[in-house]
Amino acid sequence: MRVGLTYDFKEDYGIETDDLIFADFNYPVEITYMEKAITRNGFDFVPIGNMYKLMDRIKNDSLGCDIVLVCDEGISSRNREAIVPALLELNHIPYVGSDAYCMGLSQNKYHTKLVAESLGILCPKGIYLEYDPDLPPDMKDVGDQLKENGLDYPLLVKPNEEGYSMGVFLVHDEEELCNALSHDFRHYHEPVLVEEYIEGKELFVPILGTGRDAYALPPGMVVSADGEDIPVYSVEDKCFDYSHDEIADIPDDIKEYISSASLSIYRHMGCRDLGRTDFRLRDNKEAVFIEITPRPGLCENGPFETAAGAVGKTYDDVLKEVILGAAKRYGIL
After folding, report:
1. Contact 201, 233 (CB under 8 A)
2. Cα dihedral across residues 333, 273, 5, 29: positive or negative
3. Poorest-confidence range of 164-168, 185-189, 301-305?
4. pLDDT at residue 275 tops 90
5. What is the CATH number of domain 2-97?
6. Looking at the chain, which runs of residues are DSSP E strands?
7. Residue 112: its pLDDT value, please?
């Protein structure tokens, strides 16, 4: 079977490699690692590239693969992660991963939070601020909203429709909050969430499969280079390897809760093949849902390889499982 791979790098869009304003893209080493695993599993690897290169291949009838593993992130739209699945679906091309609706919904952190809360999943308290082109923002109005919702410093600020911790700030007073809001409105032109800060462990739950067959791998946690809890899982941590993943050292009831909650929202949103949820653990006894990522990174020693290793699976096993699962769904096997 010929497996195509969509991916995009910063240079595809003329973004400097050290730019942290826009950082949610693939890395060449990640794609090379995936290529080797795909080949070791006996598949033929077909590099495609970003959404524009995919579109050209479709137009020229030169796709050259049986199924597409979707790993690109897209750019310049709140629909950026939904574009490739929609394009593939429109052209009746089999692909690995969640569909356009699921990707678009998960891209909107506030809407995802509403879904999670409707399922009884604990989420952080917060407020939703519409994009305000007038800078600085009206801090009296923001302060009133914070007070009405029982929020006090420190607070976490993040763009509503971005990923990879881009534009995420931990703020301790009104001046820092104003600066963070101004930064995110200026650079991302979209709504911003201001939420309570939850001090504690950064947890994740990798999920494999689709529908009733979906299952959670052992929960993991992100720790600093010296093995300590990280205050905020920042874009710097992710870009400069200031942190690493481990199997979570947490109480069994917390493991059961976050695994169950993860599968609940994963299935409800119609995620397919693979995904990852993130939580923060408050006082080592209360797990708070942060977000779900239906297109998680598959980097070396990342969440999936770490969690799979705990149950005797390798990175190659995970990749083969998600590819074959999608192929079965399309009747390719």
Report:
1. no
2. negative
3. 164-168
4. yes
5. 3.40.50.20
6. 2-6, 44-49, 67-70, 95-96, 126-129, 155-159, 169-171, 192-196, 200-208, 215-216, 220-224, 243-247, 274-282, 286-293
7. 98
The residue extents of the domains of the chain are 2-97, 106-121+199-313, 126-196
Architecture of domain 126-196: 2-Layer Sandwich (3.30)
**Whether the Cβ atoms of residue 10 and residue 22 lie closer than 8 Å to each other:** yes
> Which pLDDT belongs to residue 16?
86
Asked if pLDDT for residue 241 goes beyond 80, the answer is no
Mean pLDDT of 48-61: 96
**How far is Cα 288 from Cα 286, in angstroms, rounded to an integer?**
6
Find out whether 191 and 161 touch, Cβ atoms under 8 Å.
yes
Q: Which residues pair with 2 in a beta bridge?
A: 44
Is the pLDDT at 299 greater than 80? The verdict is: yes
Output DSSP code: residue 230.
Answer: P
Tokens of 95: 């692909």
Q: What is the rounded distance in angstroms from the CA atom of residue 233 to the CA atom of residue 223?
A: 9
Q: What is the pLDDT of residue 225?
A: 85
